[in-house]
Amino acid sequence: MKKSVIIKSMTGLLACAVLFCSCTSSANADINAAEASAVTEAAADISSVNFANGASELFEPADGWCNGSMFNVTWRKDNCTFSDGKMQLIIDKDKTPLTVPYSGGEYRSKEFYGYGRYEVRMKAIKNDGVVSSFFTYTGPSDGNPWDEIDIEILGKDTTKVQFNYFTNGVGNHEYMHDLGFDASENFHTYAFEWHKDKIVWFVDGVEVYTADKNIPVTESMIMMNAWCGTGVDGWLNAFDDSKLPLAAEYESISYVPFK
What we know:
Largest sheet: 16 strands, mixed
Distance between the termini: 66 Å
CATH topology of the largest domain: Jelly Rolls
CATH architecture of the largest domain: Sandwich
Number of helices: 2
Strand content: 35-45%
Structural class: alpha+beta
């Protein structure tokens, strides 16, 4: 075979090899992109989390630390249980106390979410000194400003619900709404719609309050917790620990983003 023919043959083989590698890399990239997209979509699909199915892979319990300040609990994963088709967030005496005597339950999303409708179906704890909640939160521990939107039921008076929010650490937007029922006796649906220019809260599908000043902007985790306070007796009343353990119950949650 002539030298020129050999060179041409080798050149052709190299070109085919490059083309094959290129096509393979492109195909692998497409597959990886599709898989990544599927994972992202799965992570974002939080439109219907029903605790009748037990724990959700989109959430995880907080475990092993204390928020400090007014929080008189250490978060324990064992304080987040699933039974009878519901999730229980429990307040109890801590079995291995660190700096505070009590333990609490907190359940938080693994991903961060933005504008949309957030909804929970829950039954609160009736007991002085405690809070049962559903909220969005992000802060310095996430490398973000402190942004938060709250639905909080105070155990001292479960015929009311408190709405609040923080934007870059600025709060003092509390609003207390009379429910017309006792939130500790039955499950009810609480929700808020987070818009760019306002937050609208709902109870059992009825719009009850709107805030439109200095609205949070940072994507946040979806969270629920039950805890007892310290040093905030004027807000929660002194904690009564005579009936421990106490449990807030949750049937379902959802998040639907705005298009």
